[in-house]
Prior knowledge:
2 domains, 17 helices, Rossmann fold, Multidrug-efflux Transporter Regulator, Chain: A, Domain 2, alpha/beta
Amino acid sequence: xxxxxxxxxxxxxxxxxxxxxxxxxxxxxxxxxxxxxxxxxxxxxxxxxxxxxxxxxxxxxxxxxxxxxxxxxxxxxxxxxxxxxxxxxxxxxxxxxxxxxxxxxxxxxxxxxxxxxxxxxxxxxxxxxxxxxxxxxxxxxxxxxxxxxxxxxxxxxxxxxxxxxxxxxxxxxxxxxxxxxxxxxxxxxxxxxxxxxxxxxxxxxxxxxxxxxxxxxxxxxxxxxxxxxxxxxxxxxxxxxxxxxxxxxxxxxxxxxxxxxxxxxxxxxxxxxxxxxxxxxxxxxxxxxxxxxxxxxxxxxxxxxxxxxxxxxxxxxxxxxxxxxxxxxxxxxxxxxxxxxxxxxxxxxxxxxxxxxxxxxxxxxxxxxxxxxxxxxxxxxxxxxxxxxxxxxxxxxxxxxxx
Length: 403
């Protein structure tokens, strides 16, 4: 990229001026800890976790972890001021492996990866209010719990991808999304070729790009050219995920607004998660999404392929538990969908909002970044939701029955 330090602003062309602005703005963004991987390659980093945080994540005492470190067992933590120990997420996962091997009776607690005979769990998050944030926190939360997670962004705008630092909708990047793995053309790519790493150890991403819209257009043409017979668009999603099935425990699919991609997400899914805002005008939007869901599934069934999900759950998001009107909406939801409504809710949170403004999640921040009260409240809410979803997955795998 050219440098503009010595260029007289009055002599700049419009193109040079815009490019200089882009470079300067990019420098300022990165100086504030917001990294971008597309089109610029600046890797995001994840903070280290204090010994107390690691103890809470693993469900052991801090004194036990401290003694392991003193004895030279497990990964070697970084020593900070006053001998304070901290671990990277990769080291936390190494600790999981170590504890699982030395305490085999608790192996599943420390290292919850799926075992032989347990099928890959594919959770499709229905498009609607808060679906991007829900997908983001679910994927990160499950990765922090020790699962191998693949997040797939089916939004052509790449809204989930941006939260991971991949600004993939800005430039015409060829074959960087699910389009490459689902394409009808001869240059169709392998699923593994479109997977990108993230700054969370154990969490990978398939970015969303403008090419997803091209897949919708091509699928629509095929749909009409074949006398409205449902094409093989959705089965392609199933086949693509089978290619990487051994590499992951859980796949989180962020559904966009595309018909054929969404149908593929629903056919591939083992579970459906429906984010719901506790406001009646938002409930109306959710009801429309559910009608589309039923239509997509009916098309798949008409093509002769059964669609069976292990669970369908509704998650109340951005919930103010002190708001009487919202309490009434939540009560009405539970009366309508019963036990399909998760008990835990994601509370309306200043910490989550501030984290988003910083281009981060609450999991990536520390108490001092947003204030202790707001931080602890947000973490309690998010962890409760992810723990409930983890229990659902464990039940599907039959683990709860074996305890």
